[in-house]
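Example record

The entry below shows one chain as it appears in the dataset: sequence first, then structure tokens.
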Amino acid sequence: MPILSKIASTKIAEMCLAVALGACLAAHAQTPKQDEVVAKIDGRAVTRSELYAKESSTLLQQRYDNYHVEREALGTLIDDELIAAEARRRGLTVQQLTQQEIDSKVQDPTEQELLVFYEGVQTDKTYESLHAQLLARVHQTRAKRFREAFLTSLRTKAKIQVLLPPPFAETALDDAPARGPKNAPVALVEFADFECPFCRQMQPEIEQLLKEYDGKLALYYKEFPLNIHPHAEKAAEAARCAGDQGKFWPYHDVLFGDRSSLEIPQLKESARALGLDGARFDACLDSGQQVPAIQKDLAQGQQLGLAGTPGFFINGHFLSGVVSYETLREVVEQQLNPAKTPN
């Protein structure tokens, strides 16, 4: 069955700048205007930006959840249009192209492969009774893999510009530890927790982003230790104590690189391994000298509505949790090309 109906194709044509392969495919989504008046109180206008500023702690995550759903739907729309455009280029129907590039490449698994798959399924039903279902699931998995590979090749050839921005919230940089030029056109503010596995998972993506946009991107780190992580707050203090001696980022990298380094004795050992003044570091950590700075970051994150980590603000545009490198890059590109981004 064709992936796109005639009605859907018409709507996509209206939304895209071009649909031919190699042309610019721009997914344009209107976003609320910040100066839009949403209420009047005895004649005083209340704008959307005022609503977001005062109620961000309850609205930001909901707005991000909505953005996430819209972004996934937009990705599906773009993929479908790429396939439809390629089918037109080859003089095929979408069904014929799908058969040629995806369905025809899916091979039946051997009985041994299917048996191995069955053994990984938690069920009390026999292999024989599930045989048809198992076969269908393997076909589906393999077809999905071939479809993604085909779409990757189409995306590489096409020029795709996504213009749908994440929700926005004002974020103060304050005295947060920073990497990159302070006059960089793009500021990435990260709220993170040194004991958070998802924060650790995102570090390679952030490093890659800093390399790709060297000179154009600055990273600002905000402490947001969660109550569920017993060592996170002291680790945050330790990183700030290391920062007092000019070694915040090397210490940051140590904490995210070694899962066993968050007990206080290990925190102190890590400081000495980096060549810090041990006595000065210990005094800072033991006295709680950095607690006010940590609490300031926490209060800001809570006011913004953060409930977990990591949380990212790219020029104020919010992304939550583990996000792909492509998504991070997409938002950075939007900020570097503001004239192309919808208001």
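Notes for this example: The first helix runs from residue 6 to 15. The CA atoms of residues 22 and 156 lie 9 Å apart.
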